[in-house]
């Protein structure tokens, strides 16, 4: 079976970056198609931060996704069970997530990821999202 990566972290779903990626990882792992290096961080890292920011329980969200929920159903679940997705809430999450690793507490994590992928010399990779884009082949 061909191993896959989830959608880009930049792709918005319900106005939120990373939400679709979290859903993809859950679905792909269930079918055995998720690239193995993603398994360890499931429910951690950005998945955990997003769920915490929204006020949702990751395990319950996983149940919803695995119960056959569409992307739109997942957004509706977030709205019904989490914090209201106001314009300000979207800006706060999206700006935080897109800049993570850029001169903040996650910079050492980004540098570790880059080193592990042979990308330490890439000064143009300044955020974790940029790293994901390169590591997963969407950006040279």
Descriptive notes:
By secondary structure, this protein is mainly alpha-helical. The protein is built from 7 helices and 2 strands; from the N terminus they run E-E-H-H-H-H-H-H-H. The chain has helices spanning about 20-30, 45-55, 60-65, 70-80, 85-100, 105-115, 130-135; strands at about 10-15, 15. A two-stranded antiparallel ribbon has the order 1-2. Strand 1 and strand 2 (about 15) form a beta hairpin. The radius of gyration is 15 Å and the shape is globular. The mean pLDDT is about 95.
Descriptive terms for the model:
7 helices, 52% helix, single chain, 140 residues, 2 strands, mainly alpha, 2 domains, two-stranded antiparallel ribbon
Give the structure's gist in a few sentences.
The protein is mainly alpha-helical and 140 residues long.
The strands making up the biggest β-sheet line up spatially as 1-2
**What is the CA-CA span between the terminal residues?**
25 Å
The count of domains is: 2
Report the total helices: 7
**Main beta sheet: strand number and arrangement?**
2 strands, antiparallel
Count of DSSP strands: 2
Q: From N to C, what is the helix and strand string?
A: EEHHHHHHH
Strand content: under 5%
User: Structural class of the secondary structure composition?
Assistant: mainly alpha
SSE topology sketch:
Layout: E1 12-13, E2 16-17, H1 19-30, H2 45-54, H3 58-66, H4 71-81, H5 87-99, H6 107-116, H7 128-135
Antiparallel strand pairs: 1-2
């Amino acid at each position: 079976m061909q191993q896959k990566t989830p959608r880009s972290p930049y792709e918005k779903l319900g106005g939120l970056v990373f939400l679709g990626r979290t859903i993809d990882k859950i679905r792909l792992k269930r079918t055995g198609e998720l690239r193995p290096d993603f398994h360890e961080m499931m429910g951690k890292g950005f998945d955990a931060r997003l769920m915490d920011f929204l006020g949702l329980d990751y395990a319950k969200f996983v149940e919803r996704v695995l119960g056959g929920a569409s992307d739109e159903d997942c957004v509706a679940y977030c709205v019904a069970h989490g914090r209201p997705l106001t314009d300000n809430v979207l800006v706060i999450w999206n700006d935080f997530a897109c800049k993570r690793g850029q001169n903040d507490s996650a910079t050492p994590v980004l540098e570790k990821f880059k080193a592990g992928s042979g990308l330490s010399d890439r000064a143009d990779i300044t955020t974790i999202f940029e790293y994901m884009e390169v590591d997963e082949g969407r950006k040279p």
